[in-house]
Fold this protein.
Amino acid sequence: MKFNVSSHDFLKQLNKAGGAISSNPVLPVLEDFLFEVAGGILHITATNLETTIITEMPVSAEEEGRIAVPAKILLDTLKALPDQPITFAVDEDSKSVEITSAYGKYKLAGDNPDDFPEVQEIDAENAITMDSSILANALNKTLFATSNDDLRIAMTGVFIQVDFNKVTFVATDAHKLVKYTYGNISTEHTGSFIVPKKALGLLRGVLASEGEVKMRHSKTNVSFTLEGSSLLCRLIDASYPDYQAVIPADNPNELMVSRQDFLSSLKRIAIYANKTTNQVVLSIDDGSLTISAQDIDFSNEATEQLNCTYDGDAIAIGFNGKFLIDMLSVLNTEQIKFEMSSPNRAGIMLPDEQEDHEDLLMLVMPVMMGS
């Protein structure tokens, strides 16, 4: 096996795949990349058994073949080289690898490619195709709301629900919830599954800004295939909570406020909040929003006032300021709508204008006043 390639392009593809390599692998070969050269294309595979990333790139191939290569020493070598053509050659018998650059030669020991785990194929019938930018947007809007609590394993992933012409992404940690629906896809089936947060974080790094993504799923796995790359991961085997049940239907108090002004104010006010609850209090009356926080233990307090449009009864309601900041940070409309009913019920945050075929809803639970 022998090929020539640009060191910069090579490193770029290796970095894409390298996210799937665990720092503490259960098998030594999982510290490797699997390289396969065929038809002038280099296929690069990396896996931690839970998540597998495969990328491909054209190379100038002199000999085809397969080899497993230790990832760390290869990545460190390429990072230390300026961009230049390099030659990558493998001795099939000894599995030794030689890299030749303009500066010199570097030899390292490869591993038997047959020891590398085989990648499972997923039935193509359950395929959904969507624009890469839509999937990236869905992940940006939902990933932050997933839970880190391994005792609630279902909530550590994003729940994806496919329903003929629409796909819904839901994330929650029981304190906040995001539901993002895109309604312009075409598929012949329905289904739902939970994808681990870490795999979706890696997928976000692989997604191109344009092009299509094909999502396929089985009972145990899901794959995302786009031009030149694919990611396959094991699904979370758990039942997702009934998220619809926690979304309040009747929210008569409606606040409209500048997203950026609200976000900037919260960032300042949250500095003065109690560090355990992060509670900020929104006191809303006709045309005026007062945002306040206090930390009685340290005699810290802060108050600001913002202009707003408000339709409803005067209300004072407490929320975790950090959660509000997280939610406002992933929205991109100028104005946001905040719907509430009472100080002990969840608040609903919405963009004032939804994009075509999109429906985004964010929910945040209140922090009880005085707590």
